[in-house]
Amino acid sequence: MRNPATGEIIGTLDEATPAEVQQVMAQARDASREWGETPVSTRIHYLRNLRHYLVENGEMLAQKISEVTGKVTLEAYMTEIFITADTIRFYEKQAERMLAPRKVATTLVLFPKRSWIHYQPMGVVAVISPWNYPFQLSVVPVLSALAAGNAVILKPSEVTPSIGLLIEELFQAVPAPKHLVQVLHGGREVGQALVAARPDKIFFTGSVATGKKIMTQAAEHLIPVELELGGKDPMIVLEDAHLERAANGAVWGAFTNAGQVCMSVERVYVHERVYPQFLQLVKEKTAALRQGFPAESELGSMTSPEQIRIVREHVQEALAKGAVAEWGGHFPENSMFLAPTILTGVTHDMKIMREETFGPVLPIMRVASEEEAIRLANDTPYGLNASVWSMDKARAKRVAQKLQSGNVCINDVVVSYANPHLPFGGVKESGIGRYRGPEGLQSFTHAVSIIHDPGKRKREINWYPYTGEQHALFVSLTKTLFGKNKKQGNLWSPRNWKGFWREWKRLY
Ligand code: NAD
Predict the structure, then answer these.
(1) Residue 181, domain extent
(2) Residue 230 CA, closest ligand 1 atom number
(3) Rounded to the nearest whole angstrom, what is the distance from the C-alpha of residue 210 to the centroid of ligand 1?
(4) Which pLDDT value is given to residue 257?
(5) Which of 77, 79, 340, 344 is in Cβ range 3.0-4.6 Å of 62 for a Cys bridge?
(6) What's a Pfam family this protein contains (predicted)?
(7) Are 187 and 225 members of one domain?
(8) Residue 212: CB within 6 Å of ligand 1?
(9) Residues 253, 391: one domain?
(10) pLDDT bracket for residue 246 (50, 70, 90)
């Protein structure tokens, strides 16, 4: 295990063997039975204890996350600790309601039945997580699965193994039923072994390529998967935007966490009327950024050397094809610190505008109209987040609704994830499924449809024996309920209706 900013070795860790993965799965199965029967209020009580531990130890945890990832300590605190505590609070307030049986209407012909949905825990949920927010993107899905009544096996990223250890310590520090949350350390092979051990659901956050592999492997046993994948998020700045706010948003949205954010601003489309002013503002604000590690800077280091290779490749290809580095653009060898980079003269023939860069790079394109901005924003295989900047509420809303994206911010960036009431997830290659919000919590359950009949009648209208009267009744009913001319159905008058019911009751 290394400190990415300094390269210093900070410990060693053994990877789980296939036999250990099997054993962990068996233990999780046992734990899931009792936890699934535990009332939601008791589960939430456990989450509350976790929140207290998290808040008491938050600064220490953020410090450790910062050391391991190279991210600025304040960012580690805000995005890993605060968001996790906020999510727990949300579950404390809302989980019982969101998981309570939900009554739904029952159609007239099914009278006197009653219907409801029961949210049944799935069993064992496997959470496989990435390195860019290694704490929060592990712990929040784990908490969601727990609140919904499942046992969890977490496989954190091998790029940040000590955060996996930290999370294991967190779950050991707060008393819980044995084996309720288990952590498997290791890389791809351990992830594959976990999928092969047949969990009841896989919650995966990571790259598109890995997401596809996991889905393929899961398909063999029809294991439900939820995939939170990469993005190439567009930002559209219209001519009536608050330019200073938009420039601040662009700089923060592109460079926060050194751009290693699935919802980073990865492409900007600016209306030609405000393009020069916007570019000037963005350059000024970038020039004011301090880069360093850890305490008093805005920009930390990159976390993964492999990601640096990708960022460098994208920037070099863009420059070779005619892009202009308005700021930065040259990355020294053997440094984990990449200077924030602003590119102009970019086109959709360049990787920098098409593939996920995941680094501190802000490519900006001039557009002639709102329509052109929408067309270019949608010209991507991804669809995670997007932003629209305009002071005209109706216009911004119109543009937002035309974007092919799982989440859209108006006059803001990235923030979608911060509201736990909102479902979060991608469209196109950015993923499948939604977590957060009621849908997100319920997605860790089987929504079991229950329909209840009082059970007092000896048979139903559609049961055996089939008779001519039964046939006539169904034809009449169909014409009355669904036909163009309801009078053909003979049941439109109250008298006929009464007769129909008499006949219905006589037969059934
Ligand atoms: P990755 O796909 O390389 O790895 C993610 C996890 O999958 C790791 O724990 C890894 O060990 C495991 N893994 C790798 N191969 C596996 C396999 N065949 N079977 C099972 N597990 C396997 O992703 P990464 O580089 O760690 O993370 C960066 C990516 O994550 C970026 O693309 C980023 O956009 C995406 N991401 C998405 C979201 C979101 O919410 N949509 C959030 C953060 C990051």
Answers:
(1) 18-38+100-229+436-449
(2) 34
(3) 6
(4) 97
(5) 77
(6) Aldedh
(7) yes
(8) no
(9) yes
(10) very high
In sequence order, which ranges of 70-207 are alpha helices (DSSP H)?
A: 73-76, 83-99, 136-147, 161-173, 188-196
The structural domain count of the chain equals 3
- The predicted pLDDT at position 151 comes to 98
Helices (H), 410-493: 437-442, 468-482
Report, as an integer, the average pLDDT of 267-283.
98
Instruction: List, in order, residues 6 or more apart from 150 with CB less than 8 Å away.
Output: 32, 35, 36, 121, 122, 123, 124, 125, 200, 201, 444
pTM score above 0.85: yes
Amino acid 129: pLDDT: 98
Active site residue 503: no
**Same domain for 339 and 222:** no
Whether ligand 1 lies within 6 angstroms of the CB of 420 is answered as no
Q: Of ligand 1's atoms, which has the minimum distance to the CA of residue 131?
A: 26
4 pLDDT band (50/70/90 cuts)? Answer: low
Q: 261, 262, 432: which to mutate for ligand 1, most atoms within 8 A of CB?
A: 262
Asked if residue 79 belongs to a domain, the reply is no
Query: Is 8 part of any domain?
Result: no
Annotated catalytic residue within 228, 298, 356, 370: 228
353 domain-assigned: yes
**Domain-located, residue 95:** no
What is the pairing mode between strands 114-121 and 201-205? Answer: unpaired
pLDDT tens digits, residue range 293-350?
767 799 999 999 999 999 999 999 999 999 999 999 999 898 999 999 999 999 999 9
Task: Give CA–CA dist 301/258, Å, rounded.
Answer: 7
Q: Is the CB of 16 under 6 A from ligand 1?
A: no
Ligand 1 neighbour 210 (Cβ under 6 A): yes
Same domain (yes/no): 342, 298: yes
In tens, the pLDDT along 280-304 reads 999 999 999 999 876 779 999 999 9
Pair (174, 242) in one structural domain = no
Cβ of 427 below 6 Å from ligand 1: no
